[in-house]
Amino acid sequence: MLELRLVQGSLLKKVLEAIKDLVTDANFDCSTSGFSLQAMDSSHVALVALLLRSDGFEHFRCDRSLSMGMNLNHVSKLLKCASNDDIITIKADDDADTVTFMFESPRQDKIADFEMKLMDIKSEHLGIPEAEYQSIVKMPSQEFARICKDLSSIGDTVVISVTKEGVKFSTRGDIGSANIVCRQNSTVDKPEEATTIQMKEPVSLTFALRYMNSFTKATPLSSSVSISMSSDLPVVVEYKIAEMGYLRYYLAPKIED
Amino acid sequence: IFIQVYLAVYFATL
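^ Those are the sequences you sent over. The predicted structure of the assembly is below.
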């Protein structure tokens, strides 16, 4: 038996909007530690990893570990039927081939339930070791989204370079080139508006902007984003989900032929 | 010319 009650149901709506364009079908894994997902995009160059810890749910019952295969477009359609302030409960029996999403209005005067068929999805699970990154940039998530959007009107790839002067996002295309430099500004009043750079070594990597733009769909989840880079690893773009966990995107770099 | 690396180059399949 699985029963997960999430008071801030809008979080789940935002998570689905943030991953459904990157991944079509995925297994949601549920265990006593929480609700998680790991899935690669169809090209096998980007990966999304979600964790919603059990203690972030108002009620979390998971009698035995379950993996529930779902089409993310279908889940997204279904969650669009929930209002932003609805409480969402996910229910499934241990051997069931369906999952039920229940939406309760905050005043408890409207209760809707939607049953969805589960899918059998064979997905490759990747072992991602904890790593020390050469550079970690933390910046406002809206600023990062704006930069990715602006650069993609000029080029297809972005070079992200971190030095002690700041982080530089560069692109070039048929019409010309662009560079955007963000400097550290940790003295701003609100911490979520700060750009901070932890640099052990300077690093410069090239990525496809199409994927970066797709990652920025997670912007509504968090006011800040962290970008962790090492020259020998995929970049990690992480959006923290308040009090509950994270949504991380991994993207393999492009290298010069 | 840049070529895209696959994730499997970095992470092992479990």
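The mean pLDDT of chain B is 92. Chain B has no helices and two strands.

Shout if you want it in another format.
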